[in-house]
């Protein structure tokens, strides 16, 4: 029998749990180190785009579990102006075109389902072990060693950095501190029961039916509300985006868990008409989160030695395209695919390094394009972005949704690279950011 393959995953968020699922196999020991106690209820919804929902629901067999928890198909997208006039409604059933739906989950439900799938004996492969209250403070990439705040030391053949936008592991990979960048926008977020909306916010419900499985946006010049139902239509999630300069609160102190000040929020939206303000006035104290939107610039690499980064640690992006969790899931699938047939050698550093490089090369262009597009979509239409992705929204939707997993993606990339060796419409911008260029020879493509 070959040597046991030991893996440490730093971070038990969506990326970390998904990577554990994708890596689970016999003779593998997976340990997830999570700083929190993992029992905080976060009132928020999260969406998965078709390709990621397909991985989670079909490949990882979580469709029934999530359905029982009240998962919903996001059937389309609609935009209202402040006068309550419908500007646009796009039904977006994606099954026919992309083979799966865009799904809406209560974030905690998705997290719980992934946690169970990673750690339960019900599925094949050694279950992963989660150690909570284990905050990683340092990492030696070549040795595969991580240290925790409590002075513990863990070592493994492979270390996955899934520790989110403020990743400590990323700092070790790049040997420098990578700041999360302020994007100039913050968002209030809240979850209301639909029953409460129907009784207390009648004017709002006359315009927008909160039970309809639609993502709804109310657009004002520099502010917008993005809303949608969750848990079988029993709750409604509202994210109200505000430029930092119009925010009555200190934008420097906001994290995922900062509470928003309701009077200040109402003040910020006081020029909204009554119907649109409705939901903001029927929320109670302690129910509003304030979240500063941050992302990071594309990184020169996601890997060093035994370490590879996934999820927000690698490519934190703005939520404008609802792609943060989807890209984390796609990373996880890629890590699983590239390590699928690997039996680890004694030592094994060169072996792990080579696989990690392949994961980076496979995932970088797609995740970076979506990250850039998400940043671009947050800007008012008139403002010039520093990097432009030259795709229309519908081209982008196709780009988003035509992802067949890591192996299929590599094959397609090779074809495209070869075809467009002269000047890919996208590559123009992306190549400026791409440090590691994959040279693809004609023989390779033919083979
Ligand atoms: C509380 C919370 C609320 C969120 N709400 C939304 C939302 O409403 N809408 C949305 O689109 N996205 C939201 N996100 C982000 C979204 O979940 C991510 O973009 C996406 O799921 C990718 O996740 P990730 O696992 O890479 O990062 P995260 O979801 O940030 O997970 C990182 C995990 O690593 C842990 N961690 C961090 N540092 C360390 C360390 N040094 N040692 C050990 N563990 C560490 C964190 O506690 C966390 O569990 C939220 C994230 C969090 C953590
Ligand atoms: C959601 O609806 C499905 C049926 O469509 C049901 O099986 C499930 O129990 C419901 N879950 C919740 C939490 O309401
Ligand atoms: C927030 O941080 C920025 C940049 O560091 C600083 O210029 C600004 O004064 C800070 N704002 C507040 C309210 O502290
Ligand atoms: C994503 O969608 C495309 C187009 O339908 C499909 O070819 C591909 O297999 C899907 N990806 C996954 C991971 O199933």
TrEMBL record:
Domain FAD-binding: 6-336
Matching Gene3D superfamilies: FAD/NAD(P)-binding domain (3.50.50.60)
The keyword Oxidoreductase belongs to this UniProt entry's keyword annotation: yes
Keyword annotations: FAD, Flavoprotein, Monooxygenase, Oxidoreductase
GO molecular function: FAD binding; monooxygenase activity
Assigned protein family: Belongs to the paxM FAD-dependent monooxygenase family.
UniProt-recorded name of the protein: FAD-binding domain-containing protein
